[in-house]
Amino acid sequence: MSGDAGTAGNSGYGRKPFKRSKSHFADRITADGRDGWPVESGRYRLVVSRACPWASRALVSRRLLGLEDALSLAVADPIQDDRSWRFTLDPDGHDPVLGIRYLGEAYDRRETGYPGGVSVPAIVDVPTGALVTNDYQRITLDLATEWTALHRPGAPDLYPEARRDEIDEVMAGVYEDVNNGVYRAGFATGQEEYEAACAGVFRRLEELAPRLERQRYLVGGTLTEADIRLFTTLVRFDAVYHGHFKCNRWKLAEHPVLWAYVRDLFQTPGFGDTVDFDHIKRHYHQVHTGINPTAIVPLGPDLAGWLTPHHREELGGRPFGDGTPPGPVRADEEVPASGRP
Amino acid sequence: MSGDAGTAGNSGYGRKPFKRSKSHFADRITADGRDGWPVESGRYRLVVSRACPWASRALVSRRLLGLEDALSLAVADPIQDDRSWRFTLDPDGHDPVLGIRYLGEAYDRRETGYPGGVSVPAIVDVPTGALVTNDYQRITLDLATEWTALHRPGAPDLYPEARRDEIDEVMAGVYEDVNNGVYRAGFATGQEEYEAACAGVFRRLEELAPRLERQRYLVGGTLTEADIRLFTTLVRFDAVYHGHFKCNRWKLAEHPVLWAYVRDLFQTPGFGDTVDFDHIKRHYHQVHTGINPTAIVPLGPDLAGWLTPHHREELGGRPFGDGTPPGPVRADEEVPASGRP
């Protein structure tokens, strides 16, 4: 998770209104390497938690763009300890490529004694083991626009130049009210602060719904970065934000338009195949003991609905534009049955 | 609330599995007065919280049977303090009939230094100010069968002799798995204990659903005590048990049969007109700080659906048997707009 709230474990919230930290390490990996980090196949490692919506954006982009072979993947344990994200899912508790136990070690190699939180997504330079960037707002845009030489044949254009103003505008509202709004609701320490955030979540969703009733995707008839960013929040909505973060005016499953929209994405190769509901549910409920002191993980919701027909094809559109869907998930990156509907 | 868990405020749960206390004061008010408490108009006062499902059974029965004039009503503040249920909603913070600030004072007049919890529903003898009974399992049965001389003309038979075996059997399962099951889920301190309780809630509801798909009420075609007892849990389901108690496999609003059944009851005079969603939501979320440390009360769920058509009339049945529906709510007992859909 990006920001202090996502990384601070039990103390995930304090007395002050929740404020998401800006990423500290904002170097960019670019085609021209102007920050010292040129796009290069096999050089970098993407570190994520499948629990985290910010990191999951990168998981989706990497799949859609076919960057699996160029940019390797480390998946952290959904349960942080007091040293934050760790590789306890890997043999011996070490990431097999970076050889470290904690993501924080890559931060240390970049800047000794950095006092901020350790967050995902993070991209690490494999040769030096040092963090390059944890800039969750930038990473996926650069995967879409700077890593093009390494894209698979048929990769979609997720951030088309002609639509960037509209994409940026939609994403800005979605970020403020939805992506981050659910956190402001969940980590609120007072009733007013909570109510403002929760009302904002539903106001924005209700504002987006008529658009999504008319067209298959947020910006026109093809998938863009805007859909990825809304998806990673919506896919968590009923499982954690509805109950754990008290965003409970309605479940997504009760909203015909948004529920069909998110199922359509979920069933599109590159989206649902990155989602691990087990990681999602255990992370939020077991880490945020400030709002769930028993750390009990709810049995619900019933996930069977995710695979039901959505009929969004009737709206037309071309999901991948002039491109094609990504192929199957690599065997070593498949989400285990415990995390799937 | 009955039992320690419902009355102990912050310490609503401990390390041991949740166990509901038996009522300590189990004298019965009967037609023949064999326990020393004869049925008598105007002599007793029913003390409830509109938040509490156990007390709300008595609210519904009293309305259906037309006992409003015979048995007066005190409504406690939904938020207990360290001395438990209190009359802070009344002018000057005193119950106008009993003249006491805390329900516990009526317990004291009955038994000095009683160490157990103070619970609702409670029936108090007005002349002496002493508690007669807090036996939540018995009170409504006696209203139905012992208070008959004071019933309104057209009062239904809520506990008909010929169907008692079936009613008792249905109620026993509903009590164990649903009425009390949601509490065992919500107050569980361990994952296994929670999962067993939560699974039991949904197993029982799914077992009841086919019955309610075929017939309008739980036991045959007329309202009985069994419906009252299921109603007072179901009406709280989406508002508190789904999120706060983690009974979140699905919302009632997602289950066509049960959602229609509970809306039918809600829209029947004597049921929904006793329900105060504001009291319900504030009580659970503000009192149980052991499971909701911020005491924030969720904005949802949207209550508009409660008043939508349910089409259960098509199943036939005669809600009140040979009787009639109760008349309108007394003006001084109307639920304020803040608590209504």
TrEMBL record, chains A, B:
Taxonomically, the superkingdom here is: Bacteria
Name one cellular component (GO) term.
cytoplasm
Summarize where glutathione binds, as residue positions: W85
Query: Which residues belong to the signal peptide in this entry?
Result: none
Q: What InterPro entries does the entry give?
A: Glutathione-S-Trfase_C-like (IPR010987), Glutathione-S-Trfase_C_sf (IPR036282), Glutathione_S-Trfase (IPR040079), GST_Omega-like_C (IPR047047), GST_Omega/GSH (IPR016639), Thioredoxin-like_sf (IPR036249)
Q: Which SUPFAM superfamilies match?
A: GST C-terminal domain-like (SSF47616), Thioredoxin-like (SSF52833)
Residue numbers for the site described as Lowers pKa of active site Cys? Y241, Y284
Q: Where is the active site?
A: C52, Y183
In alphabetical order, the GO MF annotations are: glutathione transferase activity
**Pfam families membership:** GST_C_2 (PF13410)
Q: What is this protein called?
A: Glutathione-dependent reductase
